[in-house]
């Protein structure tokens, strides 16, 4: 300790590394550590004793600087710990602790040959993480996952395609004799919370063979806290109905023509490819944040905009529509204006819209021609939107 006292700067560095590693360990293992408060007490008693012995009064300036740094980090750790203690999703933790696996393969012996049969086999209300392993192939099924079946995972084949496809559209007549309209046209509709999809292709082929394009949804996600990894979404108009809730899309491909990502959702799209297939002027997003108090919006990060024709990045379905693009490469198909302030014949109040871009690249990202009311976000302004904190991911996202 005497030797250590004579080298104040190395102590600073050593303690910085020591505490940094400690906090990293805590953050990654909070579910276990939160129940071991004795560990925290012993650690900080030892740390205080070490500082008292090691730092001499002759290093007054360094001591003040270090204590300020230490105080900040301890307070930050305290806030993070309190947040985790309050927001850990106990229902999800319980469900993940008792996983069930079901296998679906239409061409061989498995638990079931169809996805519907697999879903129907699950007791309701479901409280376990049920992983449905779906073999490669094309499954021509219209799927609806009810609210009573949360914690469902669709896991497709990583090497070959697992496709779920149907062909309903807005005008398709339902069992009640009336048109299904947009909401019920989805090939896959998820009304349950905690849904996860991995390596799944969602498709609606309704408009492929029709002369007139109309709303035909490939996936509607209405459940909260749902995630999609390495998935593909194919349609024409209204491909992905990001209806409501917190959602995460990672390394996905979304293809369509008109408003092919739309809804009320509060969602992060990270590493996604957005492909326009319309030869006419069209729109990628139509976000429907309808009130100032509604905390929703779409954030696209590290993504790629490509395709044919010309597109606006978005138009306002809702009067307070909110969409952000950051670190995204945009091909020339993006119009210089970038954004539209009209939805059909309804012109929105531009002061209520929140459309922004941050450090995007590519020929379609040139900001010089953008409409004057779009925001060129600063480092500080992008922070609420550029990570999984935007969707409260620390409390419910798991590694896939």
UniProtKB/TrEMBL annotation:
EC annotation from Swiss-Prot or TrEMBL: 3.1.1.11
Keyword tags: Aspartyl esterase, Cell wall, Hydrolase, Membrane, Secreted, Signal, Transmembrane, Transmembrane helix
Predominant localisation class: secreted
Active site annotation, chain numbering: 259
Pathway entry: Glycan metabolism; pectin degradation; 2-dehydro-3-deoxy-D-gluconate from pectin: step 1/5
TM ranges: 6-23, 43-62
Broad enzyme group: hydrolase
Subcellular location: Secreted, Cell wall
Protein name per Swiss-Prot or TrEMBL: Pectinesterase
């Amino acid at each position: 300790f005497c030797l250590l006292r004579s080298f104040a700067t190395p102590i600073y560095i050593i303690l910085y590394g020591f505490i940094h590693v400690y906090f990293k360990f805590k953050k990654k293992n909070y579910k276990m550590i939160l129940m071991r408060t004795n560990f925290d007490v012993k650690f900080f008693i030892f740390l205080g004793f070490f500082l008292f012995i090691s730092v001499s009064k002759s290093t007054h300036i360094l001591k003040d600087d270090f204590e300020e740094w230490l105080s900040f980090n301890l307070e930050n750790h305290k806030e993070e710990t309190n947040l985790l203690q309050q927001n850990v999703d106990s229902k999800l933790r319980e469900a993940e602790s008792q996983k069930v696996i079901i296998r679906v393969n239409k061409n061989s012996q498995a638990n079931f040959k169809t996805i519907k049969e697999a879903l129907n086999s699950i007791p309701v209300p479901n409280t376990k993480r049920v992983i449905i392993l779906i073999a490669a192939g094309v499954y021509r099924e219209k799927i609806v996952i009810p609210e009573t079946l949360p914690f469902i995972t669709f896991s497709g084949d990583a090497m070959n395609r697992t496709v779920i496809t149907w062909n309903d559209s807005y005008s398709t007549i339902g069992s009640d004799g009336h048109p299904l309209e947009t909401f019920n046209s989805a090939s896959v509709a998820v009304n349950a919370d905690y849904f996860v999809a991995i390596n799944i292709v969602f498709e609606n082929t309704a408009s492929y063979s029709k002369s007139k394009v109309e709303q035909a949804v490939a996936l509607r996600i209405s459940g909260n806290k749902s995630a999609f990894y390495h998935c593909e979404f194919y349609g024409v108009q209204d491909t992905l109905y990001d209806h409501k809730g917190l959602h995460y899309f990672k390394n996905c491909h979304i293809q369509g023509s008109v408003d092919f990502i739309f809804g009320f959702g509060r969602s992060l799209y990270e590493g996604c490819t957005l492909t326009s297939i319309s030869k006419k002027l069209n729109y990628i997003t139509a976000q429907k944040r309808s009130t100032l108090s509604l905390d929703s919006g779409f954030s696209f990060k590290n993504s790629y905009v490509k395709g044919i024709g010309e597109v606006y990045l978005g138009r306002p379905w809702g009067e307070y529509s909110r969409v952000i693009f950051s670190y995204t490469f945009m091909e020339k198909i993006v119009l210089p204006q970038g954004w539209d302030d009209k939805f059909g014949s309804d012109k929105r109040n531009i002061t209520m819209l929140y459309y922004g871009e941050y450090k995007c690249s590519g020929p379609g990202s040139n900001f010089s021609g953008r409409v004057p009311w779009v925001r060129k976000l600063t480092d500080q302004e992008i922070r609420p939107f550029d990570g999984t904190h935007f969707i409260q991911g620390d409390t419910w996202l798991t590694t896939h």
